[in-house]
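ESCALATION

Customer reports they have been waiting on this structure for their group meeting. Please prioritize. Original submission:
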Amino acid sequence: MADIYVIYGRQDEGRTEKLVELLSRRWTVWWDRLVKQRFIDEMNAELAAARSALVLWSAASNTKDTVIDEVRLAQQHNVKIICASLDGSGPAYGFGGYATVDLSSWNEREDHEAFSRLFNRLTANLPPTKRSRRPPDIANGRLPLPSVFLSVSSFETQLVPHGAVKALALARAPTLLVSAWDLVKRRKPDALIDALNEYKDTGGFILLDSGNYEASRLAAKRWTTSDFEEVLGTVPFDWAFCFDKPKTRLPSKASRLADGIIENTKRDQAMTGAPVLPVIHVPRLKSGGYKAELIPTVTRLVAETLHPPMIGIPERELGAGIRQRVATMQAVRRELDRLSFYQPIHLLGTGNPWTVGILASAGADCFDGLEWCRTVVDHETDRLNHFQHFDLFTDQTRFADLAIASQALDDPGVEFAGKVAFHNIDYFKRFNVKLREMAKEDRLESFVTSRLGKAATEMLLRLNPEVFKT
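Update from on-call: job pushed to the front of the queue and completed.
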């Protein structure tokens, strides 16, 4: 039994095929291309059993006897009928009583307003029976999902920013996040900008952060939208997070929070032709922590209005511990399932491999973190260790997949920090590949549990049984 039976005219097969493809992501859909033997018998049986019928009217279909006969048959079977027009034409004579969604402006994308109207009409009558699925990539194929961006900053890291970017370029790391804080003219960013251009020449994807992380940690008052605007106009990047420092105390109502975030994003978008991504922030609690329960609704409201390529959420605002953070991320994904399109989510400040795997399983798509230039990763256990402990893991570096990592180990011209950087980049490149492979196979849960120790795995299963099933 199909959720949706599609009735259309043969002349509209191309547009109908794309529509069926998108609808099939959220419902089971039957149309006549699925006929195995006898059309009349199978059509009658499928239509009688369908939960709804979607009729696609057009100048061609509204005069077709076969289309009109199918609609009448749906009426006889008391199947719920939902109508749409592919070209703005009205329905056939006798069916004008059905409200019709106009798809004449539809560009065949799931985030188009016309498709969203049809999706909402269908959802009102028949809630989706499938969850929205993460696409394999976004940004015209340049950004595979899920992905970990290796972050670069001058704040409390072991590598100067331009040195970190050069290492990432040499290793051909596919993604990096750089802070606007280090790119204003008063910080003399020429070496960093040159390194970013070199990195971009390798095909790498650059995500620009607003600089508010460093400004807040350093309690710097001299950091404004003017600084951010200066950077937007002078440095290379692909996407940028908006300047997310609120001017006043954050409201406690979801709609007002969303309005402020939308306003900030539009303000910054006017400064550049590259996509600017919204960042969700919610009020702090007097007792500590954040009003995480507001995040799902705020995220949906922002996505509905802006349809951004990605939305950023600081991981720390999801909750106090991993259990609450998983629960909040799941709630975000459930709320976003109400949309006609898949909305990618980036968690800011998430670079721990364990946490990345756990929150990817809960529905997050992209991550960034400074761990790769603050710690050293044990390739065998996926655990982070003190940067100075690198000497304990050099045997792993000698057998690295990344040739430059093993070469740097014995090169006296490469400083200690550089050797550690290549060791970590080698790890995260392989981690990214494996993460995506397991996501594609829908096996992220086993990807996580295979990396945790027995005690941690058992605890995780008890804390979040709905995500991590045995």
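Sent to customer with the following note: The chain has a mean pLDDT of 93.
Escalation resolved.
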